[in-house]
Design goal:
Layout: H1 6-12, H2 23-31, E1 41-48, E2 60-64, E3 75-78, H3 81-89, E4 94-96, H4 98-107, E5 114-117, H5 122-126, H6 129-132, H7 150-159, E6 161-165, E7 171-178, H8 183-199, E8 210-217, E9 223-225
Parallel strand pairs: 3-4, 3-5
Antiparallel strand pairs: 1-7, 1-8, 2-6, 8-9
Helix pairs in contact: 2-8
Length: 231
Amino acid sequence: MPKRGKNYKADLAKFDKAALHDVQDAMQILTGFASAKFDETVEVSVKLGVDGRHADQQVRGTVVLPNGTGKDVRVLVFAKGPKAEEAEKAGADFVGAEELAQKIQTENWFDFDVVVATPDMMGVVGRLGRLLGPKGLMPNPKSGTVTMDLEKALADIKAGKVEYRLDKQNIVHTIIGKKSFGAEKLEQNFNALMAAIIKAKPASAKGQYLRTVVVSTTMSPGVKINPAILG
């Protein structure tokens, strides 16, 4: 078990760790925790009542958070010709084709956070699957990162689009901003994320869909939210 610092222990004493809170109270508790020496990321973990081993019970999608993520997202776009020009004008940090693929393969270069590609470039990008896949960087049509509408894709990403997807433990884990946002903005982002996850409920899912919902900062204890009030 990891050794906990004095701030963590002090934060634990500020609230009932076993209690199920409403969203507003949870965000107030979270933003009232001791401050680290950096602006902590606020994370959400949602345990779902689905079985991700079945294709028809996968939960995956994207949502644009109303207040962004607080992170400066570096976007790499695989495109050629006019589409490359469109990506550059839309604010892509890196734009290219085979030469960028080679840079990733030979130099182990990963100075980017999101990869977007036009459909015609997926033959090139596909060869990077073993490198991009484990890092969650592989473009996918379902997440809007394989598209011809690069302007919209980049606008959404820069505005604070996050991807949520089920892991092997049937948990969705993603971010909703920075602690410095304050309770109100974090609540708005949380509600937008949860609305998307609830909307993505598979038709084949049976029983209770939202099992546990926990929010935390990078350094804090988790605060439980009552899933029954979320829909």
